[in-house]
Amino acid sequence: MGITKNLVIFFHIVILAVLLSNEIILASGAEIKKFSYDHCYHLCEDGGYGSRECFVDCTEKGFRTGDCANRTPKDPIRCCCNN
Predict the structure, then answer these.
(1) DSSP label of 71
(2) CA-CA distance, 42 to 54, in Å (whole number)?
(3) Cβ-count burial of 79 within 10 angstroms (0-12 exposed, 13-18 middle, 19+ buried)?
(4) Whole-angstrom distance, CA of residue 18 vs CA of residue 29
(5) Which H/E stretch holds residue 25?
(6) Per-residue pLDDT of the chain (83 residues; tens, 9 = 90+)
(7) How far apart are CA 39 and CA 82, in angstroms?
(8) Residue 13: C-alpha distances to residues 9, 10, 16, 18, 58 (Å)
(9) How many CB atoms lie within 10 A of CB 46?
């Protein structure tokens, strides 16, 4: 009886581990969308106009999000809004 009980407990632990690992995989497999540079406005500055101000401005303009970004390392960092 002890061996059967241990096997049942082990079986349940394995099933639980598989289910939890599957949830982690699904959560980490979220779709990553490309960042659009179509709606870039103000220059972002250290200590001045930054990510928070950019986000607020973009949401006020009707966009879902906004952040300071640059297309290439040589380009200036601008506030870019995205849907």
Answers:
(1) S
(2) 8
(3) buried
(4) 16
(5) helix 2-28
(6) 678 887 777 776 766 555 555 444 444 444 445 667 889 988 998 888 999 999 999 999 999 999 999 888 899 999 999 98
(7) 7
(8) 6, 5, 5, 9, 48
(9) 7
> CA-to-CA distance for 61 and 52, rounded, in angstroms?
14
Structure tokens at 63: 């966009």
Task: Please give the sequence-ordered ranges of beta strands (E in DSSP) within the chain, or none if there are none.
Answer: 40-43, 65-69, 78-82
- In this structure, the dihedral spanned by the alpha carbons of residues 70, 74, 76 and 78, taken in order and rounded to 10 degrees, is 0
**Token pair for residue 8?**
């049942």
DSSP state of 50: -
